[in-house]
Amino acid sequence: MAHFVIMGCGRVGATLAHALEDSGHSVAIIDQDERAFRRLRTGFGGRKITGVGFDQDTLKQADIENAYAFAAVSSGDNSNILATRVARETFHVEHVVARIYDPGRAEIYQRLGIPTVAAVRWSADQVLRRILPETAIKGDFREPSGRLFLCELALHPEWIGHHIVDIEQATEIRVAYLTRFGEGILPGPDTSYQQGDTVHAMVVSTRSADVARILAAAPLKEN
């Protein structure tokens, strides 16, 4: 079980809160308007905190210091980005994502290393794939036999600097492409995984759990 903090209790935030709680995790949800919590179902067991999501004291009330991930999904782009930066830079939350309505701004923040989801292509599933390990490897495309699927992978920070071929050999996957600075690139023999990259790979369905486990840990040290 992990702890998640959500900023914004609109339909998106409430959906995320319910999905995370149903997965057995603890949840704290923040909103400036106490009435927003009416969107939460009866019996919701998470924390409901009235306040500004980028305020450090408010975030501490949400137990941000023990959070596995932070999702800013309020209706304000600036608030979402500011809250995400505070969560990452002040409280060192590794897994963060911000919902952005303006696709152009979303691309700019993506280039700065802040994971964003533009509202024009947003869905609760997209956000969950970025913060919840067990859903991060369900895949975006599955070939007809069902044996292979294309998915977005999460890597431990210590994979940064390693060649893509090293990642493939360690996991028995095939990296299809990388998203870097908002653009897709095809990896070559000398391409290395960089901070901010998103890795998209073909994975054998029966090995998905092993792949997730290997990449969630630091690469093995060579003797």
Automatic annotation (TrEMBL):
<dbReference type="InterPro" id="IPR036291">
    <property type="entry name" value="NAD(P)-bd_dom_sf"/>
</dbReference>
<feature type="domain" description="RCK C-terminal">
    <location>
        <begin position="138"/>
        <end position="217"/>
    </location>
</feature>
<dbReference type="GO" id="GO:0008324">
    <property type="term" value="F:monoatomic cation transmembrane transporter activity"/>
</dbReference>
<dbReference type="Pfam" id="PF02254">
    <property type="entry name" value="TrkA_N"/>
</dbReference>
<dbReference type="InterPro" id="IPR050721">
    <property type="entry name" value="Trk_Ktr_HKT_K-transport"/>
</dbReference>
<protein>
    <submittedName>
        <fullName>Potassium transporter TrkA</fullName>
    </submittedName>
</protein>
<dbReference type="InterPro" id="IPR006037">
    <property type="entry name" value="RCK_C"/>
</dbReference>
<dbReference type="InterPro" id="IPR003148">
    <property type="entry name" value="RCK_N"/>
</dbReference>
<feature type="domain" description="RCK N-terminal">
    <location>
        <begin position="1"/>
        <end position="119"/>
    </location>
</feature>
<dbReference type="GO" id="GO:0006813">
    <property type="term" value="P:potassium ion transport"/>
</dbReference>
<dbReference type="InterPro" id="IPR036721">
    <property type="entry name" value="RCK_C_sf"/>
</dbReference>
